[in-house]
Amino acid sequence: MPETFRLEKGVPKYIQISNWLMEMIQKGRYAVNDKLPSESKLSELFHVNRNTVRQAISDLVAKGLVQKRNGVGSFVLGRALTPVKYTLQHISSFTDDMIGMGIVPKTRLIHKPVIEAPPDVAEKLMLGKEKRVILTERLRLGNRIPLVIERSYLPYQEYKDILKMRLTGSLYHLLTKKFQVELHRSIQTFRAITLSGKDARLLGLPPRSSGIFLESIIYDLKNIPVEALHAFHRGDKYIFEVESGRYRYNLEG
User: Fold this and answer.
1) Residue 179 exposure: Cα atoms within 13 Å on the Cβ side
2) What is the CATH number of the domain that holds 181?
3) 209: which of 3, 50, 232, 250 lies 20 to 30 Å off by Cα?
4) How far apart are CA 167 and CA 107, in angstroms?
5) Is residue 231 over pLDDT 80?
6) Which range (39-48, 78-87, 104-113, 188-197) has the least confidence?
7) Count of domains for the chain
8) Same domain? 164 vs 230
9) What are the tens digits of pLDDT across the range 26-55?
C-alpha cells in the first residue's frame, strides 16, 4: 500500500477511496477473506477523516464486495460481479443460470413455514378448500454476493414432502426429479420497486435501494399451477433481456 494518495478535486472523496479499494480487489491485491486496512490507516493514506472512510467502506458493502465484522474490521467477500443477464425465453432456475455464467451459486434458507395462502396467491394457484401453502423464503447468492430474495408458494397437499428437504439447491430440480412434475410454462411480470428495509438488509443494500420485483406463476402440462413466486432482485446486479419477433404492420393502424 502506498504511503500517501492524492485525491482529485470535483469527485466526492469517499467515491474515489471506494473506487481505489475496488480496483485493488479486482487486481487481487486484496483477495477473498483478506482484511482491508483499518480506518485509521486509510484515513492517513488519503488524508481524510474516518467518516469519509466509513462512507467508502459502506459503498463497497452495498456493492456486495466487502463485509463489516463488528469489532474485527472489514473483509473482502469477492470481486465485483458483472450484471447478471436474465433471459425470458424459457423457464430456468437460479442455480442453472449462475453455473451457466461461471458464477458459484449459494442458497440460504431463511424459513419454510406452512401458512394460509394470501388471497391473491390462493387465486393464482387456483386453490380449492385447502388454502394451506408452503412458503419457502430463500436468499440466493452468486460468488457469495446476495442477489435475489425468493418467496415461493407451493400447494401444501401436493408438495408437503418438501418440508423434509434442505432446499439449498434448485427448487425446480426437486420438483422435476422428486415430484415428477414437468414445468411446462410460466407467466412472469416485472416492475421496478423500492426494496423494503428488511429486504434491503438481506441483500446488503442501504435502505430504500432500488430493486426489480418478479412475479411468476408456473404451470404443469395439464395447465395446473405449481408455484407462485415473488422474487426481489438487486437493481444494480440484473439485466432482463427479451427477444422479440418481427414487426407486424397493422394496415388498419
Assistant:
1) 20
2) 3.40.1410.10
3) 50
4) 8
5) yes
6) 78-87
7) 2
8) yes
9) 788 888 889 999 999 999 999 999 999 999
